[in-house]
Design a protein that fits this description.
The chain is mainly alpha-helical. The protein contains two helices and no strands.
Length: 88
Amino acid sequence: MAKVVYRPLALLTTALGGLMASWLFRSVWKVVADEDEAPKSTDRDRSWREVLTAAALEGAVFGLVKATVDRAGAKSFEKATGTWPGDD
């Protein structure tokens, strides 16, 4: 039963984590590149290096935030219920 409760909480924390990751990436990009916006893959006037660097940094930030949010959510759930959400 506890795992049924965990799923909606996990979805909510994942959505909030996505918002946090977007904000964090924009903040990091401003510091790293001294630009307000990262290049998009379809920006004609941007080099491959700029586009791929931005994509790699964005992926790293999103992966780090996702792992942090997922792990913190699971640990909090375990602390509250005594059950690890991934156990069968």
